Amino acid sequence: MLRIGHGFDVHAFAEGRRLVLGGVCVPFERGLAGHSDADVVAHALMDAVLGALRAGDIGKLFPDTDPRYEGADSLGLMREVAALARECGWRVADADVTIAAQAPKLAPYRDEMRARMAAALGVPVDSVGVKATTTERLGFVGREEGIAAWAVCLLDDGRSVGGGEAR
């Protein structure tokens, strides 16, 4: 059996914070506002996995009202989400993320993001895609007020036609 999940997240820029995207510290003059490390890319992908699991979203699993998650490393949270998927009998078969950011330029960091998120999910790096785009200066992203990310995730329980062993 296969299941698909979709995730979306957005964070505003904030002074005095580091910019963490897909588990990578990207050099930039501002970071993103949030309770955890505000990794908008990891958050979108975790929501995609949780959506496919029918387990709610990261706000349900890791509420921003809980002081345990203040400043949390989102890849650590992603490892917990991946473990939950495995406990429920699922594995991440494939995932893809699109990041919308007017600045900074993200192309030099995509491969490292893929590798770090794949490791957190426990899958081969070729099972995670990352793309970056701008919004041609339109909207809050175009005005450089924040960053948005969308993700899709395919889960497999190994029983689907053509399925089989987890990679």
Largest beta-sheet details:
5 strands, mixed
Helices and strands, in order, run as EEEEHHHEHEHE
Radius of gyration (Å):
15 Å
Q: What is the 3D shape?
A: globular
The residue ranges in which pLDDT falls below 50 over 5 or more consecutive positions are none
Work out the helicity level. 25-40%
Regarding quaternary structure, what we see is single chain
Physical arrangement of strands within the biggest beta sheet = 4-1-7-5-6
Q: What is the count of DSSP helices, taking H or I runs of 4+ residues?
A: 5
Number of extended strands: 7
Task: Quote the distance from N terminus to C terminus.
Answer: 16 Å
Mean pLDDT, as a whole number?
Answer: 95
Q: What is the structural class?
A: alpha+beta
- Which percent range describes the beta-strand content? 25-35%
Summarize this structure as a short list of keywords or feature phrases.
two-stranded antiparallel ribbon, five-stranded mixed beta sheet, alpha+beta
